[in-house]
Structures
1.
Amino acid sequence: MALGNHSTITEFILFGLSADPKIQALLFVFFLGIYLQTLIGNLLMLLVIRVDSHLHTPMYFFLSHLSFLDLFFSSVTVPKLLKSLLSRLKTISLRCCLAQAFFLYDTGGTEACLLAAMAYDRFVAICHPLLYGQIMSNQLCNELVWGSWSLAFLDALINILLAMDLVFCGDKVIPHYNCELPSLFSLSCSDVSINISVMLCSVLLHGLGTCVLIIFSYTLIVSTIMSISSSTGRRKAFSTCSSHLTAVLLFYGSAFLRYAIPNSDSPLELIFSVQYSVITPLVNPLIYSLKNNEVKAAVRRTLRKYLQYLR
């Protein structure tokens, strides 16, 4: 049945971050700068991994997908936020709102699965280094990546299909800068108990499930590192997974702070949401470039080749 036959409300109003025009102008400049840096950082990471043969390894294969995912994740919310900051009409259609919620859910779930796959890669590299090339084959890497995308897509699709049957007939103001399922549930006149149950199952699968896998992997990694006799060896082993561990703490920490707070429309909730959906895609390429000597060396080699090409 058509979506419009279910709904008396066909659009919502995104309240955004501020109603003050002066503050909106400052926020526009701020978020535009962040978005451009996010695009440049992740595109540069993709380019370097693609061009430099030294980075054609499973770890950087996963990292290239993470960079593409961060590009997509940021582009789901920030362009609409920038448009709202410039426009007096801050409306979004119901269809566009559900589409944004779908892509937010899809990209967030994919990133959680991808970080778990990267944790497994680090576990194999440190705990079974002699078998690393045999275990982390091209086939397995592709299966882990496309499995992450497929599982998150299916999960998001189920949640959004259920949300499409909701009736919205009351308040149409979303006190946020984007559309997320919890915000939509609070505006619905329908019974959302099934939607909430399915969403909680999804959160347990993608959030708690992948988190348990990452913790288990790093428990074995730490145990292996501590068994290394030399301090130099321990330091070198830990350095190979420090960037990934930092990215994991940033992603899960900001996601927990964002969704642990009830849908209270508080300024603190908005701050954590910005950190989760805007700041994290910006910081990830910085983490992997500043904390990783291989990436820094690859960037220098790529720039050197580019300068030689210009000459």
Note: The radius of gyration is 21 Å.
2.
Amino acid sequence: MLSPLYQVRVDSGIQEGSDISIYYDPMISKLVTYGDTRAEALQRMEAALDNYVIRGVTHNIPLLREIITHPRFISGDITTNFLPEEYPEGFKGHQLTSEGRRELVATAAALYVSAQLRSQRFLGNLRVSTTPRSRGSHTVAVSRSGSTFTVEVDGVKVEVSGEWNLASALLPVTINRTPRVLQCLSRDAGGDITLQYLGTQFKVRVVSQLVSTLSAHMPEKVPEDTSSILRSPMPGSVVAVSVKPGDVVAEGQEICVIEAMKMQNSLIAAKAAKVKSVHCKAGETVGEGDLLVQLE
């Protein structure tokens, strides 16, 4: 039996210390797969993307995996308008079905229990919450037989088995007899786990029933008011700034223009307000998340 990564080629022109600048297309590599048929090549591409480990930079694996598994792409019914037609509001990651959510929750619970058992701690019922694309909370019960965990999620039993190598970047598992390759991007002692599942990153928190009950009494951190803060969505250079402190702007009015990847992006005000401060000027280079303009 051939490896799922047989007939896979990676072309890359970067090495440790290379600079991926804002002045050219920020390509890390090209991934090429082969097969006797289009379907076979796509299956290999799906497996290769699930096994492709990239750390430290933002990448487009979630979008690429979603595209190659889309029925229109599989059938070849695509044009250059594919992305705006299928994602008119922009691509927001893989949207979980009920079954997919159970698979994600069950795998996170099994991974958590595996780590706890390695630390010789006993666990009973767990509370699993997922964010941000699949926000919700689930009470699960976990039992183990060898390397197989049976996780009851929302009254449905999910079997998850694997080697559970906690030091590996890859997490090959079998979920209800279906092979999957996830990636554990981060995991901490508080039960916060970030998993790459079906190409998309999901943040999951797994805690005991007692911790879940006590957490209800903890104050929540107030999220940043993004309607009053304009941050750069990507690394780039500032082409123009259209406002100054004290200006009154209307909702949807252009605030500034950022150039990245040979394209100019107009950033607009999320609400009508007065400009409190401006933190950039034309010609400056900004990074992703940098504060550009603050509104009152």
Note: The chain has a mean pLDDT of 88.
3.
Amino acid sequence: MWIFGWKGPSGFSASSTAEDVTHGIDGTGLTAIVTGGSSGIGVETARVLALCGVHVVLAVRNMDAGSKVKEEIQKEIPAAKVDVMELDLSSLASVRNFASEYKSSGLSLNILINNAGVMATPFMLSQDNIELQFATNHLGHFLLTNLLLETMKNTACESNREGRIVNVSSEGHRFAYREGICFDKINDESWYNSLFAYGQSKLANILHANELARRLKEDRAEITVNSLHPGSIMTNLLRHHSFINRIGNIFGKYVLKNVQQGAATTCYIALNPQVKGLSGEYFSDSNIAKPSSQAKNADLAKKLWDFSLSLTDPK
């Protein structure tokens, strides 16, 4: 149980759960994609959205795990609308295939939750020869968002309801490399530090959200984009650091959030009416928070945007 429970301006705190921040909200008629919806806070995010009446699409790498989550949600909530679609964010081809299938399905899209991620992995390259954490946590979501953006714009226009894009980042963004984003050394194994590389990918999540928010404001699109820190939670993200994992399992119940609390800020941004019209903000504990100075660097955000476009260009 999280030991700090003081409430912020929103009326919620670190101890608030996803159900707390969505209490009484009717999401009927909305459709949401949750990447990484088969594990960790993604499961709870999907469950609570479904509880509010949202049609949830689980975008998952492991279809068996996704199907089990769907069964569990529908067992608890018989009326829940849940679909499972395959998505491997470390593969740009998989991202393109998912987006193509989604658009062909004719489904609307009100909410896109870029939740999936890997943490502090040993140095590895993705199928596209890009460092795995940057590829999975940022680049896959960058491409997915771009490919689905027109669908979201159309949905917002036709439904007259604000679309919302949610990037799950981390306070780990404060512990990126000194340069923030090492554009010229993304794939340099000799330069690689697993924790700094994680921080780099989480910084990229915030910069992506901020630059996209700026562009959508210019277009006057009825879509908001925000990023967040879910809190410190014991999930399988730390499976590559067994010692930290063991310590967390022993002491975590005293200082870490549980999954219900960890999914709260995501669900708050996705559904709570208090967030209407807010875009390009960073949230923590279901309240607006201040990210690092690098995360607010507009020039760095624009440079990352152009760099990401170059890496996702099908050529």
Note: Residues 237-254 have pLDDT under 50 and may be disordered.
